[in-house]
């Protein structure tokens, strides 16, 4: 749960208030997060904690081709199977600060507050990306709700204020942006090389693609109607009428 939900309960953040008074989350909604898409292929990613939440984080990193190492004395059966098949490395022991050496990102998902705080402090000393699950003040990046459709990824964040609201928004966005958007993205990507080699300026290329995406007939409406060939014809017509370099 988000840190704000700990009010009146045992403190789990670096301020060690004993009983949580929400000191750590008072400025969370005013924090201007820098939104970025990270390329994880081949990068070492560490997950500390082998429970169900650790499994969720491992699966998310594997979906992005991260090079995943799990550190945990024990792990749920699904994580054990991922280790057996070679999809992840499992260091079956307690976390040690040396685990962060050469690591791009670390996610801590243990139920031990001291371990989580230690992971955060060790990562901050190394100026690396760190996320302690459900404790926003122990994160220098947060994980939004992600909707993935083909090459498209739409991120939804409430800055940790309400994961439930983010989940509802994700469902509504999924209804609005369906498979046809992913299909159009692939079709447009197929002509990017042509556009870069043919159209002389950024503005020329921008106009070319915007003319297709925002044109009449609407390519999204055509794809929803199942007429992909008509969209290919639209793209071909735009190429024919474009001014070459």
Protein model, in words:
40% of the residues lie in helices and 13% in strands. A hairpin with a 2-residue loop joins strand 6 and strand 7 (152-156). It is α/β, with parallel strands linked by helices and 245 residues long. It is built from 9 helices and 7 strands; from the N terminus they run βαβαββαβββαααααα.
Which terms summarize this structure?
single chain; 245 residues; 5-stranded parallel beta sheet; 9 helices; 40% helix; 13% strand; disordered N terminus
Number of strands: 7
Average pLDDT over all residues: 89
The structure class reads alpha/beta
Helix content: 25-40%
What is the CA-CA span between the terminal residues? 55 Å
Output the number of helix runs: 9
**Which value, in Å, is the CA radius of gyration?**
23 Å
Strand content: 5-15%
Unreliable segments (pLDDT under 50, ≥5 consecutive)?
A: 1-5
Blueprint (SSEs and pairs):
Blueprint: E1 44-48, H1 52-63, E2 67-71, H2 77-84, E3 89-91, E4 105-108, H3 113-125, E5 129-132, E6 145-149, E7 152-156, H4 163-176, H5 179-189, H6 192-198, H7 202-213, H8 219-224, H9 228-241
Parallel strand pairs: 1-2, 1-4, 2-3, 4-5
Antiparallel strand pairs: 6-7
Short description:
This protein is 40% helix and 13% strand. It is α/β, with parallel strands linked by helices and 245 residues long.
């Amino acid at each position: 749960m988000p840190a704000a939900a700990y009010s009146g309960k045992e403190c789990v953040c670096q301020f060690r208030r004993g009983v949580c008074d929400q000191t750590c989350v008072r400025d969370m909604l005013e924090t201007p997060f820098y939104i970025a898409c990270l390329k994880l292929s081949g990068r070492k990613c560490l997950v500390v904690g082998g429970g169900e939440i650790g499994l969720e984080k491992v699966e998310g990193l594997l979906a992005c081709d991260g090079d995943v190492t799990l550190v945990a004395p024990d792990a749920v059966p699904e994580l054990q199977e991922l280790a057996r098949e070679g999809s992840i490395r499992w260091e079956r022991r307690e976390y040690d600060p040396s685990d962060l050496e050469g690591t791009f990102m670390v996610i801590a998902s243990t139920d031990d507050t001291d371990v989580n705080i230690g992971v955060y402090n060790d990562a901050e000393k190394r100026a690396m990306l760190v996320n302690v699950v459900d404790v926003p003040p122990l994160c220098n990046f947060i994980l939004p709700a992600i909707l993935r459709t083909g090459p498209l990824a739409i991120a939804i964040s409430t800055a940790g204020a309400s994961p439930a609201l983010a989940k509802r928004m994700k469902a509504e966005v999924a209804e609005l942006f369906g498979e046809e958007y992913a299909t159009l993205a692939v079709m447009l990507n197929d002509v990017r090389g042509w556009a870069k080699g043919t159209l002389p300026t950024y503005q020329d290329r921008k106009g070319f693609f915007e003319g297709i995406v925002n044109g009449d007939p609407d390519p999204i409406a055509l794809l929803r109607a199942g007429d992909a060939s008509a969209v290919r014809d639209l793209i071909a017509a735009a190429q024919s009428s474009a001014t070459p370099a």
